[in-house]
Specification:
The protein is of the alpha/beta class. It folds into two domains: 14-152, Murein tetrapeptidase LD-carboxypeptidase, N-terminal domain (Rossmann fold, 3-Layer(aba) Sandwich), CATH 3.40.50; 159-298, 3-Layer(bba) Sandwich (Glucose Oxidase, domain 1), CATH 3.50.30.60. It has nine helices and 13 strands. The strands form two sheets. It has a seven-stranded mixed beta sheet. A six-stranded mixed beta sheet has the order 2-1-3-4-5-11, with helices on both faces. Helix 8 (210-222) packs parallel to helix 9. It starts with 13 loop residues before the first strand and ends with a strand.
Length: 299
């Protein structure tokens, strides 16, 4: 798995921190600033980054102003979204994408940032990076940070994870796309909905009930996500909840039951998503997925 040269970073590149969702404090990002500077990057900040409006990093207009500035300024080679939460959907349809479409740049983040991953992939066919965000770097595993650095600077990486008994074995190739399951479902029927035909779908989520997960998998299935899918990569589903009267199915049961008629390989419980060992992946780039009884390999 490797980022294309035209969009990968190099030393002395300028990057910018912004937030389109939850607020961050300056002291919470100082570690990440020093980290990226140690990699030779020049870090700038949206002028409204440290604003706070309820749970948000400023008002809708302030957050819109920061992302529009970051998208339009050709000096910046990458946009680091500092934190997820909720709020990106509030500004998505207010953004002018013309300059970005002519001069694309990297977008780095996950969770709520699935909104931007999906939109730019579907509309502009651009690679993005699903990874931990600056708010979390201080507690992220050294391995995941090393992997992020390698990806950003265009180095090829291969993942080799232990397999689980629930995995559905097989091999496939295609572009990997996806993100947070609940966000993907919220985009169904819009111009930001991803196209999974001949691609590999990645999903992860946090703080959802089992019945909600099943409903969302049904939604993807009814929208045709699995019809021509090459493979399914299931990341970490963290803090899954159940009702007092138990739902009676776990995550494996839900997904396997609703995909039983398809032949594509499925890899479960990979360390990607809402955890400190959140290994980065490059969306909209071609990978090979190998799922066997011993390992899951992504390369």
């Amino acid at each position: 798995m490797q980022l294309s040269k035209k969009i990968s970073l190099k030393k002395n590149d300028n990057v910018i921190f912004i937030s389109t969702a939850k607020y961050s404090r300056k002291e919470e990002l100082s570690f990440s600033v020093k980290l990226l500077e140690s990699w030779g990057l020049n870090v700038d900040f949206g002028k409204n980054l440290y604003k706070r409006n309820r749970i948000f990093s400023g008002s809708i207009d302030e957050r819109l102003s920061d992302i529009q500035y970051a998208l339009d300024n050709n000096e910046y080679k990458a946009i680091f979204f500092t934190r997820g939460g909720y709020g990106s959907i509030q500004i998505l349809d207010l953004i002018n994408w013309i300059k970005f479409s002519n001069h694309p740049k990297l977008m780095i983040g996950f969770s709520d940032i699935t909104i931007f991953h999906s939109h730019v992939i579907n509309n502009f066919n651009i690679e993005t990076i699903h990874s931990n965000m600056p708010y979390f770097y201080i507690n992220s595993s050294k391995k995941s940070i090393k992997n992020l650095k390698n990806i950003l600077f265009g180095n090829a990486i291969t993942y080799k994870f232990k397999s689980t008994k629930k995995n559905k074995f097989g091999e496939c190739g295609g572009k990997i796309i996806g993100g947070n399951l609940s966000i993907l479902c919220s985009l169904l029927g819009s111009t930001s909905q991803i196209n999974t035909k001949n691609n590999i779908l990645f999903i992860e989520d946090v703080d959802e009930y089992y019945y909600q997960i099943e409903r969302m998998i049904y939604s993807l299935k009814r929208a045709g996500f699995f019809d021509s899918l090459k493979g399914l990569v299931v990341g970490k589903f963290k803090k899954i909840k159940d009702n007092k009267i138990k739902f009676g199915k776990n995550l494996y049961d839900i997904i396997l039951d609703l995909t039983h008629e398809y032949s594509f390989p499925i890899a479960f419980n990979l360390p990607i998503g809402h955890l400190f060992n959140n290994n980065p992946i490059i969306f909209n780039t071609k990978i090979k997925l190998i799922v066997n009884e011993n390992f899951v390999i992504i390369k």
